[in-house]
Hints:
The chain is an alpha/beta fold. It folds into 2 domains: 36-364 and 658-670, 3-Layer(aba) Sandwich (Rossmann fold); 368-652, Glycogen Phosphorylase B (Rossmann fold), CATH 3.40.50. It is built from 27 helices and 21 strands. Strand 19 (546-549), helix 23 and strand 20 (572-575) form a beta-alpha-beta unit. Bound molecules: pyridoxal-5'-phosphate (PLP). Pyridoxal-5'-phosphate binds next to helix 4, helix 22 and helix 23. Pyridoxal-5'-phosphate (PLP) binds next to helix 4, helix 22 and helix 23.
Amino acid sequence: MLRNITEERLIKRANNKSFLERYQNVINQFKREMGENPDHLWWNQTHPAHSGKLIAYLSMEYGIHASLPIYSGGLGVLSGDHLKESSDLGVPIVAVGFLYQEGYFTQKISSARNGWQEEIYREYDFNDMPIEPVLDEETGKHLIIKINFKTEIDVLVAVWQVKVGRITLFLLDSNIEENVPWYRDLTDRLYGGNTELRLQQELILGFGAVRLFEKLGIKPSIYHLNEGHCSFSSIERIRQCMKKESLDFDQALHKIRNKTLFTTHTPVPAGHDVFPFWMIELYFKDIIEEIGSDVLFALGSYDFGQGAGHGFNMTCLGMRTSLMYNGVSQLHKTVTEKMFFPLFNELKKKYKENFYQLTHITNGTHVSSFVSGIIQELFQLVNEDWLKTHDDPLTWQNQMLDRYVITDYHIWEYHLRAKERMFNRLRERSRENLRQGSWDTTMIIVNGALLDPDVLTIGFARRFATYKRANLIFSDIQRLKRIVNDPYRPVQFIFSGKAHPADDSGKLLIQQIVNYAKNPELGYRIAFLENYDLVLAKMLLQGCDIWLNNPLRLNEASGTSGIKASMNFIPNFSILDGWWAEGFTGTNGWAINPENKQEPNREAQDWLDAKSFYDILENEIVPMYYDREPGAIPFKWVNVMRQALLTTLPKFSARRMVKDYANQLYVNLLEKEN
Ligand SMILES: *Cc1c(COP(=O)(O)O)cnc(C)c1O
C-alpha cells in the first residue's frame, strides 16, 4: 500500500490532524495487542505446562491477504485462518510454505464471445509484499537452505518471513541468482507443472522445512502436516533421527510418529498426490541405500482400486508417520475412513494400543477477518468484549437473541448497506475495466453491470472443481428462466471462481455460465465475475442475500465460504455436506435435498438435487424474501438471518477450531513420550 501512495499524498496526510489521530489509534491498538503479556494469552493460561514449546505447521498454500497471492482456495484460506487464530490465542506455531514468484494465476475471460478462461502469470515484485528476507546470522546475507535432488548440484532456496501477528510464517523461494537456471523456476507457481515438478516442490517443502528449523536452531516439539504435500518432512525427520541419534529405521519412525499430526482435507481420491515408484526411487537413492526400497515404498504404498492407480500416496505417507490424524468435518471423517479402510486396518494391527482412530475437527473461519467492519462495529456497541468471547455461545444467546438489543431493523439495515457497497464496487470494477479497454460492453454485462440491488441476490463463488457443480442451477433452463424473470419477485445470481489451469471441464463450466450471463432469455440476471480472490470473496460473502453451495454430496470435505457468509447474517442454501451437515438447524438457512435422497448415477442425482433446489427456492425462499409491507422489513427473513449468525459464528469460528486442535490433538502429542 505504501508503495502505491504518492509522496505528495503521504505528506498531505501527515499534516492532517484527524487522519493522524485515526492512524495513532490503529497503531496503538496493534501495539497493545502485540505487547500483551504472553502469560495472559489463552494457550499459556490453559496449558501452562507447555509454554515455550513450538508446533511446526506445514502447508502448500496460505491465504492471509490478497496482497500475498500464495493461495488457490479453501485449503489456503484455512491455513491462513489457522495462523491468525493461533496468533490471537497465543498457540506457539511456526509455519512453513512457499513464496511463489507467479502465485496461482490471474484469471482472464478471453472474451465474452467465447468465454474461455485464460491464465495470466505475472512476476510479482516481492518488494510489494508484506514480507522480509530472513538473514543468515553468520554472514548477514539472505538465508539460503540447500536441498539435494541426487544430482551433483544442490537446489538452493532463499527464506523469507511474514509476521502473521505473533506467528512467523517462513516462505521458501528458489528463484535466486545463486541457483542453476533450471532450478530457479521450481517455485514459480502454485499447483503448476507436471508430476515431477510437484514432487520436486514437495521435496523442497518437506526437506526444506526441517532443515530450515535446524539451521535457525528452532526445535518444534510436534509437526502438524496439512495434506500430503508436506509429508516428505517425515522422511527427513526419520533420516535425521537415524543419523544423529544412531537409531535404526523402526526406532526413528516410532520417535517421529509420536510427535506428528496429519490433517487430510479432501475426500476425493484424485485430490491426493500419488507418485510413481520409479520417480520416488530416482529422488531417494541415498535413503534407499540405507533402508532399502521396500521399506521406503511401504511408507507410501497404496492402491485406491477401480483403476485409480497404485503408487506412492502422500496422504498415506503422512498417516503412516503420524500418531494422530483428522478429517475436517464429521462426514469427511467417515468418508476418509472408508476410502483408506485397508490403511487404518494395517495401522491398527501394527500399533495395537498405540493406534489412534481417525478423528475430526470441523473447520472454522477467522471471525475478525471475514465479518464485515460495520457488523463488527455493531457488535462492539452491544458488547465491548464480544471478540474476546466470540466462541462462547452464551455471548450470543444473551445479547444477540434479544430483539431489543440488536433489532430486526439493525440487521436489515446493516445488510442493505453491505449489499449496496457490493453493487457500488461491482459498478466501479466495470467502469475501471471499460475505461482501460480491458472489457467490452458485453463483458461489462457478464460482470454484473445490469444487476439490480433491489432483487434477491444469490451468490456462488469458489474454485470451479467439477464436483462443486457450478452449473447445477441450469439443469432445467425453462424453470430457471421463469424464476429469474418473474416480474414481481425476480431472482439474480452472481458466480465467480477459477478453474485449475489443467482442468478443461472446469473451464467448460465457466464458459457455460458466461454464455448464460449474456443470454437475453435469462434477463441478464446471471453474472460471472472475473478473477475470484480474497477481495472479491469478502465482498460477495458480505453483500449477497443467500450463499449457495451445491456439491455432489460426500465430495466437500468441509467447505468454509458458507460459514463466512453466515457470520455476516447471510443464510446458507446448500447440500447437507461438510460443515453444513452439522451446521444446519432447520431455521438458519436451507438444505437442498434435505432427506439426502440418493440416486444410483450422477445424472439422476444432479436432476434430483436440482429439482429440490428449484422447489425450495420457488416455494420457500422467494416468497419469504419478498414478504414485507411497502418500505418495511421482511421480518421472517430477518429471523433466518439472525439464526444464521447465532448458530454459526461461535461454533464454526476458527477460535473453536484452533482450541479443538490444541486441546484434543496438540496437547496429547506434546505429552507423548518420544
Ligand atoms: C473461503 C474461501 C474459499 C473456500 O470456499 P468453499 O466454498 O468452501 O470452497 C475459496 N476461496 C476464497 C478466496 C475463500 O475466501
